[in-house]
Amino acid sequence: MCLVCIAFASWVLRSSDPESADAWKAALLANVSALSAIQYLRHYVKKKTPPQDGP
């Protein structure tokens, strides 16, 4: 899921025309996709990391 969101964000930015008036929509969509992928990855890493005992 994480890689799909990042790949989609990358595709949106490469396929959009930076000179068009709607370029901000493509950038916003790419940023939201990338942020959700990062959030998902952080949540997944926290879930996988076993709790460590203190000293």
Quick rundown:
This protein has 55 residues and is mainly α.
Task: Record the SSE blueprint.
Blueprint: H1 2-15, H2 23-48
Helix pairs in contact: 1-2
Description:
- The chain has helices spanning 2-15, 23-48.
- The chain is mostly helical.
- It has one domain (1-48).
- The protein is elongated, with a radius of gyration of 16 Å.
- The model has no long low-confidence stretch (mean pLDDT 75).
Task: Return the domain count.
Answer: 1
**Major sheet, described briefly?**
none
Question: Helical content, roughly?
Answer: over 70%
The residue ranges in which pLDDT falls below 50 over 5 or more consecutive positions are none
Helix-strand sequence = HH
| Structure classification | mainly alpha
Q: What is the radius of gyration?
A: 16 Å
Count of helix runs: 2
Mean pLDDT: 75
General shape:
elongated
Tell how many strands the DSSP assignment holds.
Answer: 0
Q: What distance lies between the first and last C-alpha atoms, to the nearest angstrom? A: 37 Å
Strand content: under 5%
Keywords:
about 55 residues, mainly alpha, about 0% strand, Perm1, signal
